[in-house]
Specification:
Radius of gyration: 21 Å
CATH superfamily of the largest domain: Glycogen Phosphorylase B
Strand content: 5-15%
Number of helices: 18
Oligomer: single chain
Shape: globular
Helix content: 40-55%
CATH class of the largest domain: Alpha Beta
């Protein structure tokens, strides 16, 4: 089986490709430069593995230009197809190029708006013709997918609503648990422990500060702020470190909320961090990481997986039972979806015995169930079970 990972939004396809290669699959990555233009460094493989800054191995290919509705990259795409049985696209650019890929089987790893919003806006509400055509192509390209990998309830709901429920493959992204613990910036971690090691806990919010509940990228950081305000009033914050990322659509509005609550003297604001530096923040010995708190009871996002991969406790809106079924039983992550439940989680994890026991359980659980080999084999099996190419019979 020869697999081409096409497009690399936010480095998801790079990591999956690398993990497939590690278990013996002939896989290559075709990294479109437009991903970097759209999402910045988050889509550069060297963000995950800094040693790639000096050059890529021969299984990573960079495709320059904009592969949109015009066949301006067909030569490059044909070269991919000639040596590929299976293509796996990701992100919005991946959906847009799918109809150019002349391969037996195309799958898609769902990330967000390319599933939940981009294809479904009414055509009459779109002014520019090329945008109308691109949106129509989104819909057609989802139809040609053999399967769409997702574990995010809003994505699954949208796919079912639009008659694509038979394409859903329930699959949860793993992490390189052992690798993340090695690749985190250890020098930065030592500096951070010197600064925060004397604190009872360090509460970390590294997700985007998105506060519009009508948008699919809503994170509900105002719930986190409300819980901190209550904790400040009822016990104080002098022995608690607060690290908050100052990025997102509503960062300024969030800063006003915390200023009104009188929380600014306790907060250290950080910019969007390179991957190895982010792991250092998430992996502090006394860290509790807070992620998406909107009441969707969804699966793990990137920050959630990354913090758990380095053994830290996670508080977010999450269906723990779903994690048991997707990864393995016993995940100690705490479900929170309101000011009250977030506050209760803070108080609970301020108890030393509870915190250290939960952290030890998280360390064991992530090594057993979050680490990638088992999940990657599950993805490979799902591909083979839906594929039509001749390579399938020799492997099943």
């Amino acid at each position: 089986m020869r697999v081409a990972f096409v497009c690399n939004q936010d480095n998801n396809n790079y990591r999956i490709c690398k993990w497939m290669r590690s278990v013996g699959v002939d896989a290559e990555l075709y990294h479109f430069s437009i991903n970097v233009e759209a999402s910045g460094k988050r889509s550069l493989p060297e963000l995950v593995d800094p040693e790639l800054s000096g050059g890529y191995p021969d299984w990573i290919h960079v495709v320059e230009g904009r592969p949109g509705i015009v066949r301006n990259k067909q030569k490059e795409l044909d070269a991919i197809c000639r040596k590929t049985n299976v293509a796996i696209t990701s992100g919005s650019v991946g959906v847009r190029v799918a109809h150019f890929l002349n391969v037996p089987d195309i799958f898609h790893y769902a990330l967000g708006g390319e599933i939940t919003t981009n294809p479904w806006k009414p055509i009459e509400e779109i002014e520019k013709f090329h945008v109308k055509l691109a949106q129509f192509r989104y819909r057609k390209n989802l139809d040609i997918m053999k399967g769409i990998f997702s574990d995010f309830p809003p994505q699954i709901d949208v796919l079912r609503k639009h008659g694509l429920g038979d394409k859903i493959i329930s699959w949860s992204m793993p992490e390189d648990v052992l690798g993340n613990r090695k690749r985190m910036n250890q020098d930065l971690r030592r500096q951070l422990m010197q600064r925060y090691g004397g604190k009872k806990r360090v509460f970390v919010w590294a997700s985007r500060l998105n506060m519009d509940p009508s948008q699919p990228y809503y994170k509900a950081p105002e719930i986190f702020a409300g819980a901190l305000h209550r904790l400040k009033q009822e016990r104080g914050l002098d022995d608690i470190g607060l690290i908050i990322g100052q990025h997102g659509f509503d960062a300024d509005a969030f800063k006003k909320i915390v200023a009104d609550y009188g929380l600014n003297p306790h907060i250290d604001w950080i910019d969007h961090q390179p991957y190895v530096d982010l792991l250092a923040y998430l992996g502090l010995d006394n860290a509790v990481v807070f992620d998406n708190l909107c009441a969707t009871m969804d699966g793990l996002g990137g920050v959630g997986r990354e913090c758990m991969s380095v053994g830290s406790m996670l508080v977010k809106s999450i269906d723990v039972g779903y994690l048991d079924s997707q990864y393995g039983q016993g995940c100690p992550a705490i479900n929170a979806y309101s000011v009250d439940t977030c506050y209760d989680a803070m108080v609970r994890l301020l108890d030393d015995d509870i915190f250290h026991a939960a952290r030890a359980q998280m360390d064991l659980w992530s090594k057993c169930y979050l680490h990638y080999p088992r999940n990657i084999m599950g993805m490979i099996y799902e591909i083979l079970s839906r594929s039509t190419g001749g390579y399938r019979e020799s492997l099943l």
